[in-house]
Amino acid sequence: MVDPMLFYDAENQILGRFSTVIAKKLLGGEKIIVVNSEKAVISGNPRFAIEKYLHRLARGDPIHGPFFPKMPDQILRRTVRGMLPWDRSRGRSAYRNLKVYIGTPNELKDKKFEKVKDAHSDRLRIHYITLEQLSLALGAKKKW
C-alpha cells in the first residue's frame, strides 16, 4: 500500500504563510512534496531580506556551524524546520516526511498540485523577492 502524499506548488506563495501550513500538516502525519520552491516569495523590501539572510550565513564558523543553506529548496526546508519542534522526536520525524524540489521533476509532471489559499502573493501590495533571486544574491550557483 502506498502512503498518501500531498503535493504542493510553491509558485507565488508567501514563504512564511506557506511554511506554517506545511509544518502543521507534517505534524499531523502527512507526507508532503513541494515543487517550484525557487518561485516562492518573501514579502518586504528585497534589500532587507538579503541582509537578513546574509547575516544568518555569517553567523557561526564554517566548520562548526550553525550552517544555513543557499539553495532555494533548502531555504524552504529550513523555514519549515524552524516551525517544527526540532528538539523533540516528533518534530524530527515529521521533518523527514518533507521533500522539496527546484522546478517540477519529470515523475511528478502528471500530479495535481495544491496551493495554499491564504498564502498567495496576489495579496501583496508591497515589494517582494523570490527565493531564486535571494539564493543568487547569497552566492548560490544556479544549477536549476
Description:
The chain is of the alpha/beta class. It has a single domain (5-138), classed as Ribosomal protein L13 (Ribosomal Protein L13p, Chain: A), CATH 3.90.1180. It is 36% helix and 13% strand. It has five helices and five strands; from the N terminus they run βαββαααββα. It has helices at residues 15-27, 46-58, 72-82, 89-95, 131-138, and strands at 5-9, 31-35, 41-43, 98-100, 128-130. The chain has a three-stranded parallel sheet. α1 crosses α3. The protein is globular, with a radius of gyration of 15 Å. The mean pLDDT is 92.
**Per DSSP, what share of the residues sits in E-state strands of 2 or more residues?**
5-15%
CATH architecture group name: Alpha-Beta Complex
How many DSSP E strands? 5
The CATH topology corresponds to Ribosomal Protein L13p, Chain: A
How many domains in all?
1
CATH H level, superfamily name: Ribosomal protein L13
Low-confidence stretches: none
Number of helical runs? 5
Q: What is the helix content?
A: 25-40%
Taken from the alpha-carbon principal axes, the silhouette is globular
Index terms:
single chain, 144 residues, alpha/beta, Ribosomal Protein L13p, Chain: A, three-stranded parallel β-sheet, two-stranded antiparallel sheet, globular
Short note summarizing the structure:
This protein has 144 residues and is α/β, with parallel strands linked by helices. It has helices spanning 15-27, 46-58, 72-82, 89-95, 131-138; strands at 5-9, 31-35, 41-43, 98-100, 128-130.
